[in-house]
Amino acid sequence: xxxxxxxxxxxxxxxxxxxxxxxxxxxxxxxKIIKKPDDAKxxxxxxxxxxxxxxxxxxxxxxxxxxxxxxxxxxxMEGRYGLHQKGEERTKxxxxxxxxxxxxELWYQDVRKFGTMHLFLKxxxxxxxxxxxxxxxxxxxxxxxxILRLAFEKTQRKVKVVLLxxxxxxxxxxxxxxxxxxxxxxHPERLASSITDEEIIILHQKIRETLQEAVDMGGSSVKSxxxxxxxxxxxxxxxxxxxxxxxxxxVCGTEILKTVVGGRGTHFCPSxxx
Length: 274
Hints:
Blueprint: H1 4-18, E1 23-28, E2 34-36, H2 40-47, E3 54-58, E4 61-65, E5 69-74, E6 79-85, E7 94-100, E8 104-110, E9 116-121, H3 145-153, H4 159-164, H5 174-184, H6 197-216, E10 257-261, E11 264-268
Parallel strand pairs: 2-9
Antiparallel strand pairs: 1-7, 3-4, 4-5, 5-9, 6-8, 7-8, 10-11
């Protein structure tokens, strides 16, 4: 699933490609992707004539800011957007097409069809699911060490599970939680309540550092991820533990192990992360 760095990269590339374009019509070839309104035909009608004024990101969600509406899109496992010319042959995984007045088309493609789209009146998107209740942005001023301290101190959950919960900090997923914990020297199965104030200071710093490095390199293309221009990310070349089961640790040479934490495959170094 694309995480904050990947979604941020998609946001930036799409901003270059489609901001200022006006929607002539929309084709919905797989209606289940449209979650709000519950009728895909109404979704299509609402978007006719709307101009894309900007694109924002909230955690792992893209928000297309239109004249009158906010379109909240989640890519889930393998969703992707791409700009195409009218008349190009569509792939079988193309499920939503935004036709622009200039003849170009924005295709939403999704092999697994897990992606979602919610259309709100502008300004109402933060008051309802899926954005309602999301935690702070890691790059915002609101992301202070006390955010982690409050999330950790009154729970019996493991630290990785808490970090994956979007109610405390948004945008972190399997890749970047594993990487940030490794850089912090914290075992992913530690009880969150056992993390010390000194460790929280380090973890807070490493979360930001890891995410910023990944954004700077266009995200991680560990599976099918590409940005809005079809380019791969490059941060996978810097991964220390994620996807490196049985390989030697880049720091100490110990074999990287893989386990399951909170139902998610989890990579760690048993020497660097006691």
